[in-house]
């Protein structure tokens, strides 16, 4: 990887995500942050509101799930090292049931103008990757939880400890 890409993707020590150097970027997903660095665009109120809309919607979904009394793990992060490569996954919501049947559901929130006829391949790939990583890392202390503002609540826990905590 050339040095320009290494600099663009250089993670912050605390979060593991690329550095956010302007106000409001804590709302930006890593893919959008990379696109912003590679294909710079001028921020406008319209663009910022479009990006923010998804975060407002996600927050509303989280509040609705919690109001139903569901056991919700919002903003679950998995940080896994594989052959010297850091792999990070961010799961919008993980729902955990213990009775009557043990179950775990991953809920990724996507904003769209209309519901597509079938899920986008990239969304399916994302979910399959998250499920595989969750399964592989289950008993490893690689799970973290953050609140809506990005403040670290729990760090380096196993999934069972995170789900029960």
Q: Your description of this structure?
A:
By secondary structure, this protein is an alpha+beta fold. Helix content is 38%, strand content 24%. It contains five helices and five strands. The protein has helices at residues 3-9, 30-38, 45-67, 121-137, 159-164; strands spanning 72-82, 85-97, 103-107, 143-146, 152-157. A five-stranded antiparallel β-sheet has the order 3-2-1-4-5, with helices on both faces. A hairpin with a 2-residue loop joins strand 1 and strand 2 (85-97). It is globular. The chain starts with a helix and ends with a helix. Residues 14-27 have low confidence and may be disordered.
Features:
single chain; 165 residues; alpha+beta; 5 strands; globular
State the gist of this model:
It is built from five helices and five strands; from the N terminus they run H-H-H-E-E-E-H-E-E-H.
**The biggest beta sheet, please?**
5 strands, antiparallel
Radius of gyration, Cα only, in angstroms?
Answer: 17 Å
Strands, total number: 5
Net shape: globular
Strand order of the largest sheet: 3-2-1-4-5
What value does the average pLDDT take?
Answer: 79
Unreliable runs, pLDDT <50, ≥5 residues? 14-27
- Structural classification: alpha+beta
Amino-to-carboxy terminus distance: 40 Å
The percent range for strand residues is 15-25%
Would you spell out the secondary-structure blueprint of this structure?
Layout: H1 3-9, H2 30-38, H3 45-67, E1 72-82, E2 85-97, E3 103-107, H4 121-137, E4 143-146, E5 152-157, H5 159-164
């Amino acid at each position: 990887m050339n040095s320009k890409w290494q600099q663009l993707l250089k993670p912050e020590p605390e979060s593991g995500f690329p550095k956010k150097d302007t106000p409001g970027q804590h709302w930006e997903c890593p893919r959008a942050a990379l696109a912003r660095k590679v294909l710079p665009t001028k921020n406008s109120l319209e663009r910022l509101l479009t990006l923010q809309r998804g975060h407002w919607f996600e927050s509303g979904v989280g509040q609705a799930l919690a109001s139903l009394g569901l056991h919700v793990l919002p903003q679950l992060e998995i940080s896994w090292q594989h052959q010297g490569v850091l792999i990070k996954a961010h799961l919008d919501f993980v729902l955990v049931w213990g009775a009557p049947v043990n179950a775990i559901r991953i809920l990724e929130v996507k904003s769209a103008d209309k519901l597509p006829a079938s899920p986008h391949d990239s969304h399916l790939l994302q979910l399959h990757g998250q499920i595989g990583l969750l399964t592989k890392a289950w008993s490893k202390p690689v799970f973290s939880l953050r609140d809506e503002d990005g403040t670290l609540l729990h760090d380096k826990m196993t999934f069972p400890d995170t789900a029960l905590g």
